[in-house]
Design a protein that fits this description.
The protein is mainly alpha-helical. It has 16 helices and two strands. It has one domain (18-200, 225-417): MFS general substrate transporter like domains (Growth Hormone, Chain: A).
């Protein structure tokens, strides 16, 4: 019976592999979660105009929401290892939908932080670790490509949702727009979650490509254990090198994502054009995700992962006196291309270095640590603008961090946990 399932997993033409359904559902959920969250910058000016809040205060709400997401990600990643994504994503769908819906009644700072940080931020804990870990469990072969496709969903949401949200704000106001976002997220995520399964065994299947992996292990004199526990991973140099690279990546990405719209409008670019620039950023993320997934399956995950940081250096071009929307869009696209590729491969990097034993928990913990970059990046940029009246120093800081990430990437090397035997395994 097991042999037949393995044979079928290697011959998808003879039957349908449910892993593709998993990727498709996660693709849709990424559109909703990441796409909705990426519209934060579009709400900046409407909230400032109505309440007179500073950019640092609004950036702080986004930053603390990311921190809540990181903390929640550990719990959600651990629950995903035990209960599976159907339960986890259902819970997250309720929280994300409720967070957006409650923004409708926001009239004070404490409400902003309660709804956007605590409720929405906690729900967003399911956007990364549970979903990417689930894909890693379903695919051994084509893992990077499938992860890239899933990540492309979030990028696609970020591509078309900002212009849509900007149009909705113009027609029904920012409060009505949050109602639309919340309703859509609540219904779509809960329904989509019901089709998710934790791993192939729940469908009588095996991970795609698992047979070849099993055969290679049978002929090896070294038995590879399932992987590292979180505690064991924390004692490795590779874990912390990945954290540094992820921190730099997300610091740069979230700083630009939150502040590129107000930066563009400060330069005299119209609000609709600025929203399109934010959409172009998501287009770069989408393209980078897909190409990095394809490239990593061909030339290796580590090599592709490091290469992805090269285009991010384009963030330094924002220091130039550029005032054309199309030129800013080009710079942002190139930068986001690298961001998207690096973010896509992070799950596979952890899987290849530390195995699948506690992948969801390790991924969730790593996301918490790197999320500090997402939390402090937009806040620091907002604070620098409030004190200096310019984003120049913030963009320069992003460029320095990208260069640090490139340098750290050179130190990355494989880590194995092996149990050696005096004779080949039977």
């Amino acid at each position: 019976m097991i042999k037949n399932n393995i044979d079928q997993a290697q011959k998808p033409g003879r039957y349908f592999f449910y892993g593709y359904i998993i990727v498709g559902i996660i693709f849709i959920i990424q559109i909703i979660m990441f796409g909705g969250f990426s519209t934060s910058g579009v709400f900046f000016k409407p909230l400032i105009n109505e309440f007179g809040w500073s950019r640092a205060l609004l950036s702080g709400a986004f930053s603390f929401s990311r921190m809540a997401q990181g903390l929640s990600g550990i719990v959600m990643g651990g629950l995903n290892d035990r209960l599976g994504p159907r339960v986890v994503i259902t819970i997250c769908g309720i929280l994300v939908g409720a967070g957006f819906l409650m923004m409708f009644v926001t009239d004070s700072v404490w409400q902003l932080y309660l709804f956007y940080v605590v409720i929405l931020g906690t729900g967003m804990g399911g956007v990364y670790a549970p979903q990417m870990s689930t894909i890693a469990k379903w695919f051994t072969k084509r893992r990077n490509l499938m992860t890239g496709i899933a990540f492309a969903g979030g990028s696609l949401g970020g591509l078309f949702l900002p212009p849509v949200v900007n149009s909705l704000i113009s027609n029904i106001g920012w409060r009505g727009t949050y109602i639309v976002l919340g309703t859509f997220a609540l219904i779509s995520m809960i329904v989509g979650a019901q089709f998710l399964r934790r791993d192939p065994s729940h469908m009588g299947q095996v991970p795609f490509g698992e047979r070849k992996l099993s055969e290679s292990r049978e002929h090896s004199p070294v038995k590879m254990v399932e992987g590292f526990s979180l505690k064991e991973a924390l004692y490795t140099q590779q874990f912390w090198l990945l954290i540094i690279m992820s921190f730099c990546n997300i610091f740069c990405l979230m700083t630009i994502m939150v502040h590129i719209v107000p930066h563009a409008t400060d330069l005299g670019i119209s609000a609709p054009e600025a929203a399109v620039v934010l959409g172009v950023l998501s287009g770069g993320l989408l393209t980078g995700s897909l190409i990095a997934g394809l490239g990593a399956d061909r030339i290796g995950t580590r090599r592709t992962f490091i290469i992805c940081f090269v285009p991010m250096v384009a963030v330094l071009l924002l220091l130039l006196p550029v005032t054309n929307a199309w030129m800013i869009g080009l710079i942002v696209f190139v930068m986001a291309f690298g961001n998207g590729g690096a973010a896509t491969l992070m799950s596979s990097m952890f899987a290849e270095l530390f195995g699948m034993r506690s992948h969801g928990l390790i991924l969730g913990f790593s996301n918490l640590l790197s999320t500090f970059g997402a939390a402090i990046g937009p806040f620091i940029a907002g604070l620098l603008f409030d004190t200096r009246g310019s984003y120049q120093l913030a963009f320069f800081l992003c460029g320095v961090l990208v260069i640090i990430a490139l340098a750290v990437g050179i130190l990355l090397k494989p880590v194995t946990k092996q149990v050696r035997h005096s004779q080949p395994l039977s």
